[in-house]
Design brief:
Blueprint lengths: L1 H23 L3 E8 L8 E8 L5 E9 L5 E4 L5 E5 L4 E2 L2 E2 L3 E7 L6 E8 L5 E6 L5 E6 L4 E7 L5 E9 L15 E6 L5 E6 L4 E8 L4 E11 L6 E6 L5 E6 L4 E8 L4 E9 L10 E7 L5 E7 L3 E7 L6 E8 L7 E4 L5 E6 L4 E7 L6 E9 L3 E8 L2
Antiparallel strand pairs: 1-2, 1-30, 2-3, 4-5, 5-8, 6-7, 8-9, 10-11, 11-12, 12-13, 14-15, 15-16, 16-17, 18-19, 19-20, 20-21, 22-23, 23-24, 24-25, 26-27, 27-28, 28-29
């Protein structure tokens, strides 16, 4: 009965939290962009106004001064934002980075710092919030570990409730000599945490208890990708039946089927994100599934493109559609707007962002002609404005 009750609560939360996006469809959103600040061209997190009916974007400006907020996430209630700083030293602590909590003013876009706590590892690179809104989960890249941190009633961050250190290595002596935890996501039912570890060539699965904030190895504990692939980011299909990991070193996306009862993956396919004749260095970065579930997108750093794939709804496998230039260098991150009509891609090395219109029938991308200038944009998120 407890499992049925908890599942029912998670479903209700998902429906309730989806409501703001539905209400804002066709209206205005806030678009937040995180940057690398070490080059001195930017200072933290910037905000923009995004018109979902036209795809038009207008700048608000710097809303949070923060060292290298390379990734952040939005709380399900749309009132709080949690950002990691990709640094290795914080407040005198060596090999430790911080996680910062902010309150969002959804009218002005302003961010107000609530507090800042340790990520418990070196060079944090990814952060997520579970569906209940009670916990922040962090992946620490250099540390090769993950942590769970309690969210207080006022949105501030509390104590750490779980910490897991990965061990092992894989075939590349330069890039896989040790674990490099690169992302942590929650399963649709909020029962499992999915961790892509570039150094281990594994997608690890942990049993997650939202009330306790605990992380325990699942059985089976992981699924492996081809040696030397370097899994980086992960995304579930809206149906909850499939998952997709983008392999940074292998320039590929691996499709899995997902057994939600056991928390187990089974590989379906691995498909290249770059053309066969492309021989230069390439490192993949972001992967996202279109809200319709019909398309999967991945970014190429080197080929400097967005790879577009069509999803077979019956099998979950992918078919290549096209690769579209990002009109810049090193597209580390991109984001599909909540209506599914537009995409914004950020080019880290050329300090620009490009806006595309998405063809909802084919998944193809067409540049709208709008380009935004910003120093080293590397994370993009949308929030409904009031």
């Amino acid at each position: 009965m407890r499992k049925i009750r908890d599942s029912f609560i998670v479903c209700l939360l998902a429906l309730a939290l989806a409501a703001p996006a539905v209400l804002a469809a066709g209206g205005e959103y806030l678009m937040y962009v995180g940057t690398y600040t070490n080059a001195g061209k930017s200072q933290g997190i910037y905000a923009y106004r995004f018109q979902s009916s036209t795809g038009q974007i207008t700048p608000i400006g710097l809303v949070a001064e923060l060292p290298s907020p390379s990734f952040f996430t939005i709380h399900p209630n749309q009132r709080w934002l949690y950002a990691i700083s990709e640094i290795t030293r914080w407040e005198g602590q060596n090999n430790i980075g911080p996680v910062s909590a902010y309150a969002i003013d959804r009218q002005s876009g302003k961010l107000t710092l609530l507090n800042r706590v340790s990520a418990r590892g070196s060079l944090p690179c990814f952060v997520s919030v579970d569906a209940t809104g009670g916990n922040v989960l962090v992946a620490n890249y250099i540390g090769g570990n993950i942590a769970s941190i309690r969210i207080n009633a006022d949105g501030s961050l509390g104590e750490s409730t779980a910490f897991v250190q990965h061990t092992g290595s894989s075939v590349d002596p330069r890039r896989q000599r040790k674990p490099f935890a690169h992302s942590i996501n929650l399963s649709p039912d909020n029962r499992f945490a999915i961790v892509a570890d570039l150094g281990l060539d594994k997608v690890l699965v942990y049993r997650f208890d939202a009330k306790k904030g605990s992380l325990e190895p699942n059985d089976p504990p992981s699924v492996s990708v081809k040696p030397g692939s370097g899994p980086r980011h992960f995304a579930f299909h809206p149906s909850g039946k499939y998952g997709y990991v983008i392999n940074e070193m292998g320039s590929s996306i691996t499709a899995f089927s997902w057994d939600k009862a056991r928390g187990a993956f089974k590989e379906l396919q691995t498909i290249s994100t770059i053309p066969e004749d492309f021989k230069k260095e390439n490192n993949c970065a972001e992967v996202q599934v279109h809200p319709s579930g019909r398309f999967v997108y991945g970014s190429n750093r080197g080929h400097d493109s967005i790879a577009v794939f069509a999803v077979d709804p019956a099998r979950g496998t992918l078919t290549a559609v096209e690769r579209v230039s990002t009109q810049g260098v090193m597209p580390r991150n991109f984001r599909i707007d909540p209506t599914g009509n537009f995409m914004v891609a950020g080019n880290q090395r050329t300090d620009n962002m490009i806006v595309y219109r998405i063809d909802r029938k084919t998944g193809r991308l067409t540049p709208t002609g709008q380009m935004l200038e910003l120093g080293a944009p590397v994370c993009i998120k949308f929030v409904p404005s009031r």
